[in-house]
Write a structure and sequence with these properties.
With about 300 residues, the chain is α/β, with parallel strands linked by helices. The protein is about 40% helix and about 15% strand. The protein has an eight-stranded mixed beta sheet with strand order 3-2-1-4-5-6-7-8, with helices on both faces. Helix 4 links the parallel strand 4 and strand 5. Helix 3 packs parallel to helix 4, helix 4 runs parallel beside helix 5 and helix 5 crosses helix 9. The longest helix has 26 residues.
């Protein structure tokens, strides 16, 4: 069974509440470190076969040795759509769970191999492409990791007139845009799955403030120092940061749900359903983003009924 009866208020939900995952297969992007590795460890520990989809197979193999259970490593570079296509083309058989976890945060201006702004290209377009290509294999759900940064001050939005922020690049603006895109992607993906009559569900999660390597690449030295202090004194550890992802992955939640910590400002705590910004709830913007993403990647939503009957 992939679901579990929600915990009562008397006891917070933990990884020990993950139901038996024996016989199930999960892909975790960026599964070699941080909350991705913690997610993989928890799923494998519950009996799932976990595929670590990583940019550097050598680091992936080192991480796999820290996973107790059935695990394998496959190369996936989300900043290179040819790598995404190769990963998907090599997939055979069913896939129960896709965890779109990998990401980059607040980095200096850079471009993907295909010429997209790195944060939008990796965090959104790479996962958009991967998900659509793997959908014919999926049987249960897609969980995409977003961030509370989707509602940062300044009213984050999708810059349809300049998605790459050319000439106006700011690391936090680009990151917020990419995390807003993750939520809009989840919203529109669920709409399409429902219209198709698919049992697959699309959900999103955010970890709160988790102490990982993600913050160590910030373009600002002052922010890196502040984040380092925050990681030490305020943040949850990686295992706690992975709980909202795991909760979204195994709980019986409605499609398009968004999960995160239940503590103050959603920075830490037990996983629960959380709210999102008005911008992240706009179906018109979600559809527009989907159309633009199809144009940029050349990948479209698959005909699932045809694929299932083939």
């Amino acid at each position: 069974m992939a679901t579990h009866t929600p915990q009562t208020a008397a006891r917070p939900w933990t990884a020990q509440d993950i139901p038996d995952q024996t016989g199930r297969t999960a892909v975790v992007t960026g599964g070699n470190s941080g909350i991705g590795l913690a997610t993989a460890q928890a799923l494998a520990g519950a009996g799932a076969h976990v595929v670590l989809a990583v940019r550097d197979p050598r680091r992936g193999e080192a991480a796999a040795r820290r996973v107790h259970g059935s695990v394998e490593v496959r190369r996936l570079d989300l900043a290179d759509l040819s790598s995404v296509r190769a990963f998907a083309a090599a997939w055979h058989g069913g896939l129960d769970l896709l965890i779109n976890n990998a990401g980059v945060m607040n980095i200096p201006e850079a471009r993907t191999k295909d010429g997209f702004e790195m944060q939008f290209g990796t965090n959104h377009l790479g996962h958009f492409t991967l998900t659509n290509l793997l959908l014919p294999h999926l049987t249960d759900r897609v969980v995409t990791v977003s961030s509370s940064a989707h509602r940062m001050p300044g009213s984050p939005r999708i810059h349809f007139d300049d998605l790459d922020l050319a000439g106006a690049y700011r690391p936090m603006t680009a990151y917020s845009q990419s995390k807003l895109a993750n939520l809009l992607f989840t919203l529109e993906l669920q709409r399409r799955l429902t219209a198709e009559g698919s049992p697959v569900r699309a959900l999103a999660a955010h970890p709160g403030w988790a102490a990982t390597n993600l913050q160590g690449h910030d373009a600002s030295l002052l922010r890196r120092l502040a984040l380092r202090a925050g990681n030490r004194f305020l943040a949850q550890d990686e295992a706690a940061g992975a709980l909202p992802t795991l909760y979204a992955a195994v709980q019986d939640l409605p499609g398009a749900s968004y999960t995160g910590p239940d503590g103050a400002f959603e920075m830490r705590g037990a996983p629960t359903l959380v709210g999102r910004s008005r911008a992240a709830s706009d179906p018109v913007t979600a559809r527009r983003l989907w159309t633009v993403s199809e144009e940029l990647t050349g990948v479209t939503f698959p005909r699932l009924a045809v694929a299932a009957g083939a």
